[in-house]
Structure formats: structure tokens, C-alpha cells
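Lab meeting minutes (informal)
Scribe: AK
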Amino acid sequence: MNATVGDRLLVHGSTVGERDHGGEIVEVKGPDGEPPYMVRFDDGHTGLVFPGPDAVVVHK
């Protein structure tokens, strides 16, 4: 998984009733665009994310 600043990270809900969520990648911490990513989620909070298999990067 590779990303650049400005791409979006979408995480699919992993349990019944859990909604998908996503946000903008504001910092790439790994080498060559690899995780972890600092993400500003759509609900306003920012966090360090180590994406799992339920996540996808949408390039800008």
C-alpha cells in the first residue's frame, strides 16, 4: 500500500452495523509512501493509522 499526502484512506466497517469511515492523509510516516499514515478523518479527529486489509487508498 502506497500513498501521498492528499490521498484519502477509506476503512470498511468490519462488523455488522459499523459504517465505513475515511479521511485525508496529511502525513506519510513510512518510507516510499508506505504506512503508517497520519489521517484527518471526516469527523474531525486526527490519528496515526497502520491500515489493515479492510483499508484502501484512493489516490487524488
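Next up, CB showed the second protein from the same session:
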Amino acid sequence: MGKLFEIIECHVMVKKQDIMVLLLVLFAPWVNGQVAKVDSSYSNWYYEQRLAYFNAMPTVHDAIVFLGNSITERAEWQELLADNKRPILNRGIGGDNSFGIRARMEEVLRGKPHTIFLMDGINDQFRLLPQEVSIANYRQIIQMIKTRSPKTKIIVQSALPINEQMTNEPYTKNRNELVLRLNTKLRQLAADEGVPFVDLVPLFQDEQGNLDRSFTTDGVHLIPTAYMKWIEALKERKFL
């Protein structure tokens, strides 16, 4: 183990947290004494095209950035916040995960955002990524923001439950319990890092803890009007 740290530190200039994420990936089969498969992939044609689009856009300074996966991407944040004085940027990519978000933070931070609303997690759960790895990636993302854009406000938002009765794909089954556990860890991470945590789950869950059918048509994604409740909740907390 010591030799591995020496090799990494000699040939790659990374922080201690980066090394720990790498170790979690390399040795994930022994996380918590259980066998676990780690899928750290994130890049595909859609990710690359959307990232190329972001990179080609002019740099926007002091913006409010919504960062995440398809649940973030599908919102018309600019219209929902048309009365806001600051620019609004949608940095959601459908299918993205904590590895993918971590990999594209340079573009996200180039304009020194005023605020970043971070919301991820469900795709990590779909691929059964060990939550220790997800939390390590989240911590890395937060640390990148603090280091490269220290004036940026960071808001960590919870992952949303899904409605498994409305989904057919095997990878969506038995995931809500994992989402609940992840959100508990995200809340603790936010407290450790001294940043706000917004629990979005109560806005959209039914009495059984599933994503309410009135807010979704596929059991995973939100219908457009659901984002109005999301924005209202952020405004009530004085984040917007």
C-alpha cells in the first residue's frame, strides 16, 4: 500500500483526497468487507457532445449554476428564474454520475460562479457504485470549488427517490433504500464541509416514500411543473 502511494505521488500531482478516491476504486471489492463492483466510467457520445457545447459557449461570470444529471438538465432554469438578476446556467448532463461531474469541474468553474446547486446520486445508485466512492467524489467536487472559486456558494441537494412500480429496467429495482442511505451521508458530508444541504425528497415523495406519480411519467424524471416546487423551496430557504 505504501508503495502505491509513493508511485502515485511521484508521477501524478494530486491531493490526498484524489489518492483516496483512486484507492477506493482499486480496492472497492473489499469496501465494508463485501464484494462490490465499481463502474467508474462516465464518458459517452452524449456526455462528450454536451461538454463540447459547454466548452464552446462564452465564459459567463458570477452565474447561478445548476449542476447534475438528467434531472437537472431537463429543467428550464433560465425561464424559472427569469426574474433573477444573475445569469442562470444549466450544467446537467443526462446519464452523468459523480465521476463525470468531477471530471468536468474545470468548465463549470471557469466563470467563477456565484452559486452552484449540486444534485447527483441516482445514476451512481443505478450502477450500485459503493456509496463510499460516491461520497468521496462529492467531497472532491466540493473541495475543487472551494479551492478554485472560493467565493462560490455551494448548495448540496439530495438525490430524489424513484417510483419503482413505474419502471421496467432491472437496474432501477430496490434503489430507493439506497437513495435514502445516500442522502443521510450527503447530509453529513454537507455538515462536515460547512455547506447547506437541501432535502428535496419531501417535495416529491408519496406516503410510501416513492417518487409521487403526479410528478413523473416514467418513475425517474420530473415533469416540467414539478420544478416550480423545487424553485419555490430554494427561494423559501433564501438560496435564490
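CB comment: The chain has two domains: 1-37, 60-236.
No objections, moving on.
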